């Protein structure tokens, strides 16, 4: 059996997607391809005919081959992405049948993200519509360079050459602006099979080939194999005591045993000892192979790292310009997102909006507020340096998705641009840099050592975190009094006081809580630079926000103090009546009631205020500071 399959497996594979507006016939075309290429079993065809009769369709509805959801069949629309496989003697194919409705554009982008060719269907009666242009534009943005314009339903316009030429001319003008030149236009009737697998007897004026013949001849040589070497590390394998393999899928270039690689963004150089595909050891691998790489050196490399070519490195940066496709019905807000680049996840912020791109005209406009299906050019700030490439160079290392960390919902897809932000067919990005790029850090003429000697102390931020009513503010104020009486310069940053001034523009949504903590951390860092001991009293419910605060302040100056008290005790205290309001539904997003609190796992100090007195808590912190030399010799 394996030998019989060998010729089939050796034929190359073309992944393509269908796209276009609603009711242009995408699912019907795929059904026709599967039927005429003998990829449908007899019993499946019989069930298809029965379903068509049950749904009162006059003829067998080929779209039902791919519209597998009940809602799709009842409404006659495509909602989800459906993948189908078929083959001819010359090539294997995987088709992504994607929805045409505007609200499902995200599904279309998903199907196009791995495709090498896109078939853009247009109803001959309707011509090019906004969704047709949007899908063509997204296909080009996603790196697809082979497009087929399928002018469908020619039987409904009497096989008119004039209609076909008008649609072809309009699309050619649009595609030319995108810098796309590999376009084939085919007039067809997917329902009747004209120009799908065989040439149509009704359109003798058409001098080209049917769709399948073109699909068989499109070059799909793996350009990735000639690109610089890239392999995102997905996981570390330890099947035996002496083997440590870095597993992942090759995203570019060739990898050979003995080859030098660089681990980014860390910058460690290493040598490949062995390469395995499954349990089989090989001397060379090419994309898109999934492999395991063993290095000669014993390096700390894990998920999210990128193995690259030392002579052609990926860009390591914390900022990038990108094209963003907003895929959520909730508009973009000023919040922290989780960006997933390859196998790495990192917090990020959409720093600035450069422009919106009109998919109809390709004109750039004022960005506005991104909503569902918004496409535009943005600047993204990653909270940690990432290794990436422009999307035009590598589709894997040049793309990312934005995820809402609380809802775990994918809200946007991004394609990283060259540094100048250029998009084919559009003007250059606006030249005004983001505000942070205009800033140059200034060094003080007073050294940290001088400040320590002057004040007789070392700066530190004591980050008190815990539920409302746990005792944070009470402990913070008592500690400030104790340290000041002992001659130490210190200051309390309290949640309510900060929100009266510095953060008065922020509410209590998860995104605004994150921004609140970010600003407080930056202020604490400046105070530490001045030599002060800073005491903060914030619920700061999210572990990642506290970790980000530690990075902003510096690990050597940050101490997490968990003011721990059980929720019933905090509710019984309820010094501001907030728990009562939350239980009555008058206060939304309240930590401990309608919003989560992520307890510290390894705090510098844990103060149990259900068992310890205020004096004991203050004494514990002072003893901790003295033991570590923060209060002087």
Helix content: 25-40%
What would you give as the CATH superfamily of the largest domain? Answer: P-loop containing nucleotide triphosphate hydrolases
- The coarse overall form would be elongated
What count of helical segments does DSSP give? Answer: 16
Please give the number of β-strands: 28
Multimeric organization: single chain
Beta-strand percent range: 25-35%
* Low-pLDDT ranges: 1-9, 68-79, 427-435
CATH class call of the largest domain: Alpha Beta
* Sheet of most strands: 8 strands, antiparallel
Describe the 3D structure.
The structure is a single chain. This protein has 633 residues and is α/β, with parallel strands linked by helices. It has four domains: 2-217, Rossmann fold (3-Layer(aba) Sandwich), CATH 3.40.50.300; 224-308, Beta Barrel (Elongation Factor Tu (Ef-tu), domain 3), CATH 2.40.30.10; 315-425, Beta Barrel (Elongation Factor Tu (Ef-tu), domain 3), CATH 2.40.30.10; 448-627, P-loop containing nucleotide triphosphate hydrolases (Rossmann fold), CATH 3.40.50.300. The chain is 27% helix and 27% strand. The protein has 16 helices and 28 strands.
């Amino acid at each position: 059996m394996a030998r019989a399959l060998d010729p089939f497996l050796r034929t190359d594979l073309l992944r393509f997607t269908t796209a276009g507006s609603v009711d242009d016939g995408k699912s019907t075309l795929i059904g026709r391809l599967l039927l005429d290429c003998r990829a449908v079993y007899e019993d499946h065809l019989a069930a298809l005919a029965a379903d068509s009769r049950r749904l009162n369709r006059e003829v067998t509805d080929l779209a039902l081959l791919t519209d597998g959801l009940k809602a799709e069949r009842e409404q006659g629309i495509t909602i989800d992405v459906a993948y189908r496989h078929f083959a001819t003697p010359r090539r294997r194919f995987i088709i992504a049948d994607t929805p045409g409705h505007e609200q499902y554009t995200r599904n279309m982008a998903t199907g196009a993200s791995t495709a090498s060719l896109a078939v853009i269907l247009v109803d001959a009666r309707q011509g090019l519509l906004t969704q047709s242009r949007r899908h063509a534009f997204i296909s080009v943005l996603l790196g697809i360079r082979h497009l087929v314009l399928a002018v469908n339903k020619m039987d409904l316009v009497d096989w008119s050459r004039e209609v076909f030429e008008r649609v072809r001319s309009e699309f050619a003008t649009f595609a030319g602006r995108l810098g796309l030149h590999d376009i084939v236009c085919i007039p067809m009737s997917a329902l009747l099979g004209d120009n799908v697998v065989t040439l149509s007897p009704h359109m003798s004026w058409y001098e080209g080939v049917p769709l399948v013949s073109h699909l068989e001849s499109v070059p799909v040589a793996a350009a990735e194999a000639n690109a610089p070497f890239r392999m995102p590390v997905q996981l570390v394998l330890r099947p035996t005591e002496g083997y440590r393999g870095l597993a992942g899928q090759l995203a570019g270039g060739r990898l050979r045993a003995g080859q030098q690689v660089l681990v980014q963004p860390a910058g460690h150089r290493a040598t490949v000892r062995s390469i395995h595909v499954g349990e089989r050891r090989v001397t060379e691998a090419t994309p898109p192979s999934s492999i395991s790489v063993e290095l000669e050196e014993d390096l700390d490399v894990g998920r999210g790292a990128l193995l690259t070519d030392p002579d052609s490195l990926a860009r390591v940066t914390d900022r990038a310009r990108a094209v963003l496709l907003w895929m959520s019905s909730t508009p973009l807000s000023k919040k922290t997102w989780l960006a997933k680049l390859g196998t790495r996840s990192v917090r990020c912020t959409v720093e600035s909006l450069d422009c919106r791109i009109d998919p109809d005209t390709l004109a750039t406009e004022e960005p506005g507020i991104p909503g569902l299906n918004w496409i535009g050019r943005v600047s993204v700030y990653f909270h940690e340096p990432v290794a990436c490439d422009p999307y035009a160079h590598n589709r894997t290392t040049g793309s990312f998705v934005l995820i809402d960390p609380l809802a775990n919902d994918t809200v946007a897809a991004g394609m990283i641009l060259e540094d100048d932000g250029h998009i084919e067919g559009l003007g250059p990005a606006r030249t005004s840099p983001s505000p942070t790029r205009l800033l140059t850090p200034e060094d003080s003429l007073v050294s940290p050592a001088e400040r320590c000697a002057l004040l007789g102390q070392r700066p530190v931020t004591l980050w008190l975190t815990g539920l409302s009513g746990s005792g944070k503010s009470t402990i913070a104020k008592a500690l400030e009094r104790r340290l000041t009486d002992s001659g130490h310069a210190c200051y309390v940053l309290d949640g309510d006081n900060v929100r009266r001034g510095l953060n008065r523009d922020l509410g209590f949504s998860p995104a605004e809580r994150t921004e609140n903590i970010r600003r407080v951390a930056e202020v604490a860092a400046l105070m530490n630079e001045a030599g002060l001991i800073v005491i903060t009293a914030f619920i700061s419910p999210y572990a990642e926000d506290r970790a980000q605060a530690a990075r902003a302040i510096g690990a050597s100056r940050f101490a997490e103090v968990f003011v721990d008290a059980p929720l019933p005790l905090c509710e019984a205290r309820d010094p501001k009546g907030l728990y009562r309001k939350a239980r009555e539904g008058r206060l939304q997003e309240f930590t401990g009631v309608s919003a989560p609190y992520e307890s510290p796992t390894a705090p510098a100090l844990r103060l149990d205020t259900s068992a310890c007195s205020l004096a004991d808590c203050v004494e514990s912190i002072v003893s901790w500071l003295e033991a570590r030399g923060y209060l002087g010799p």
